[in-house]
Amino acid sequence: MAFNIKSLTGDTPHDKRPIIGAVKVNKPFVYHDASYECAAWWEDREAQLGVHPVYLGRSYHHPKNLTITAHINAKVVDDYFPGLWCGNLISREPYKPKHLGEERTIYKGIEVVEAIQSTGNSPGNDIDWFIHPSWWPVFLDEALAEMREDYRRLPEFWNEWDSLKKDTFHPKMDGRWQFDDEFRSKVGMIAHFGSLLEKWARRIEKINWNYTRWNEPSSYMRELHTKNTEWTKAIPIQLND
User: pLDDT above 70 covers what percent of the chain?
Assistant: First the structure.
């Protein structure tokens, strides 16, 4: 059954997000988390070997595009949470890690095209990725919609830039915003939308090519796909049919 993409927001709980693929960690890596309220505190988490789920999500902040995130089981291997006062240690005793061995989750994202192009490759890399092909059209539809919207908005800034005339320009903000400021602002927006158009067009091109390659394989490639993705069966991946 097809997933209702419109129901997915940046606030959607993890257990309500579909599992669209899997990752296999073949080589442990350590994630350093220094996001705590005290700048001096941190925790190191080591990814556990094995297969882990990959979830579809949506960015909480603008532009709120779709995201791909692996939820990798991990354990604490080191930490630093001493008592501090104005940045100075309170205790005279050497700090001893407090959370060694505790279970954690590493949230590892990946760019859409990279994840899709990695799908079906020979396993055995440091990390193997698999995104079920039934979800690829979801990312294709998003790219098409975003490219059309960016193309629609481009003329607004192009026309304003193209009509700028230095001899008729009136400074703004009590003279603090001059012609050169306006020129850079408008041409900068053209560059911004130009980069977005390239981003979405390249994504459309690559997803389309990979989707065709996956769905119209030779008997040899079909056998190879099956062999290379056997490891993903450890995860209950949801199909988007």
Answer: 99
Q: Residue ranges of the domains in the chain? A: 5-132, 138-233
Sign of CA dihedral 110, 24, 54, 216: positive
Mean pLDDT of 4-8: 92
When the pLDDT of each residue in the chain is averaged and rounded to a whole number, the result is: 94
Q: Does 231 have pLDDT greater than 90?
A: yes
pLDDT at 195: 97
What gap in Å lies between CA 98 and CA 118, rounded to an integer? 38
User: Would you say 57 and 12 are in contact if contact means Cβ atoms under 8 Å apart?
Assistant: yes
Tokens of 62: 């603008």
At residue 86, the pLDDT reads 74
Cα gap 31→33, rounded to integer Å:
6
